[in-house]
Specification:
- Among the domains are: about 5-150, Rossmann fold (3-Layer(aba) Sandwich); about 290-420, Transcription Regulator spoIIAA (2-Layer Sandwich), CATH 3.30.750.200.
- The chain contains 16 helices and 18 strands.
- It has helices at about 15-30, 45-55, 70-80, 95, 100-105, 115-130, 190, 200-210, 240-255, 275-285, 300-305, 310-325, 340-355, 385-395, 405-420, 425-430; strands spanning about 5-10, 35-40, 60-65, 85-90, 110, 140, 145-150, 175, 175, 195, 215-220, 220, 260, 290-295, 325-335, 360-365, 400, 430-435.
- The protein has an eight-stranded mixed sheet, sandwiched between helices. Strands 14-15-16-17 form a four-stranded parallel sheet.
- Strand 15, helix 13 (about 340-355) and strand 16 (about 360-365) form a beta-alpha-beta unit.
- The longest helix has 18 residues, at about 240-255.
- The chain is globular and about 65 Å long.
Length: about 425
């Protein structure tokens, strides 16, 4: 059987769009004979779409990209999809964070572990040729255990287009993947490892493809925008950063486009903000708002969650950026594990200090994400007084965010573990076996 007799349905929700586009681009780039059908489950019934493909193709692969909050919906969907005879493949942050629960509780045939491009391309090719789907980079069951075939090398971002531009589909371009910070509440380091970068030439090439087709605003994704090109992704390389942004500026100007960098959907670390990096940013970008990740106003909590900066670096970053003419949003997380009343008070005081400097706060509450060191921490409940003070900042227009919804979501995540749909770390390790491949 050739690959032309196989269809791949990439099923995703709005929060997984970037990853879905990257997978579709990778498969169509490497395996143009494969029909890739993008299914946004908010617009199309995935079950009906897969049934339609099953009538037209001899083999159908269904890849579902999802996060942990979508587990209950996905579990029901997988049960129905398996009745179609399709191979059902999990991807996205939950599959990497909890491959054991993904297979044993949600019913997937196989899960993509970590980066998806190389693995999905190999899986589709092998499944077409021989029916094999347990390829390097996947998790699968064997003898009552879950085996994870860990790839010995990272994906070369330049090997794949960032999105399927030939379909007229675009999203913010990923220019940096991985992080050396290892923050204990964040999945990035644990899912993708150390940082690596899409080259300037590749970024410019695909930006120009978008601009040619009418896209006017260029946006980018990176764990730390100012870390582009540096060895650790934290201590900046201003020369490499300027090479990237000046090149983007030139191509954007040719097409009347705009460059947004260091703003939504990404941020900058406070310990990457210097006079030099702020000047480079101001010289080339169109956005006048920058997002800085502070996370806490407590030095003790910052150390506990493995941030590599202190409180004063946050204040200095804000001062440096505002002096260059930027407005600044600062991300704050409340309810971090181990946070005591004194720590929370220090965070609130920092928030109020930043507001006095003209900052707008982006408020979050802690989420126990699978695959992170803090995944089994029970979410705390904010006191009425803390809620009142945060609500006051929102009411003044100096803060925003879904922090109250995130409180509910965090409790939902924790209860998924209580129900057994998501495995705790200690339980997962008993059933997990890693194999290098």
């Amino acid at each position: 059987m050739g690959v032309g007799e196989v269809a791949l349905a990439v099923v995703y929700g709005s929060s997984s769009r970037y990853g879905a586009y990257a997978v579709a681009a990778a498969v169509e780039h490497r395996l143009p004979e494969v029909y890739v059908h993008l299914v946004n489950w908010g617009r199309v019934n995935p079950l009906e779409a897969v049934r339609g493909l099953a009538e037209r193709y001899r083999k159908v692969i269904v890849g579902i990209s999802f996060n942990s909050l979508q587990v209950p919906y996905v579990a029901e969907l997988v049960a129905e999809l398996r009745k179609t005879g399709a191979l059902v493949v999990a991807g996205g942050p939950h599959a990497t964070g909890d491959p054991v629960g993904t297979l044993l509780k949600l019913g997937f045939d196989v899960a993509v572990y970590g980066e998806g491009e190389d693995t999905v391309v190999e899986l589709v090719r092998k499944y077409a040729e021989s029916g094999e789907y347990r390829v390097c980079g996947t998790a699968y069951t064997e003898g009552g255990k879950v085996i994870v075939g860990v790839r010995g090398r990272c994906v070369d971002l330049d090997s794949y287009p960032p999105y399927p531009y030939w379909r007229g589909l675009y999203c913010p371009m990923e220019v940096m993947r991985g992080c050396s910070g290892g923050c204990r509440f964040c999945q990035v380091t644990y899912a993708f490892g150390l940082p690596r970068y899409r080259s300037v030439e590749s970024v410019v090439r695909y930006s120009e493809e978008a601009l040619k087709r009418g896209i006017r605003d260029l946006r980018f994704v990176a764990p730390n925008s100012l870390g582009y090109g540096s060895p650790d992704g934290i201590k900046p390389d201003p020369v490499k950063l300027e090479e990237l942004l000046s090149s983007l500026r030139r191509v954007a100007d040719r097409y009347g486009g705009r460059v947004f960098y260091g703003s939504f959907p990404t941020e900058v670390r406070p310990d990457s903000v210097t006079e030099e990096t702020a000047s480079v940013l101001r010289r080339y970008v169109d956005n006048r708002r920058v997002v800085v990740g502070a996370q806490s106003g407590s030095e003790r909590v910052l150390r506990a969650v493995r941030r590599t900066h202190g409180v004063e670096e946050v204040v200095n970053a804000v001062s440096t950026l505002t002096a260059k003419g930027f407005s600044v949003d600062v991300d704050i997380i409340v309810g971090l594990p181990g946070e005591e009343a004194e720590d929370l008070e220090e965070t609130i005081r920092l928030a109020e200090r930043l507001v006095a400097m003209g900052v707008r706060l982006h408020l979050h509450t802690f989420m126990p994400l699978p695959g992170t060191p803090l995944e089994d921490s029970e979410p705390s409940q904010l006191s009425p007084e803390v809620r009142r003070r945060l609500a006051r900042l929102v009411g003044l227009g100096r803060a925003y965010g879904d922090w109250m919804k995130q409180e509910e979501a965090a409790r939902t995540l924790y209860e998924l573990k209580v129900r057994g749909l998501v495995y705790r770390r200690s339980e997962r390790l008993k059933l997990l076996r890693l194999r290098m491949c």
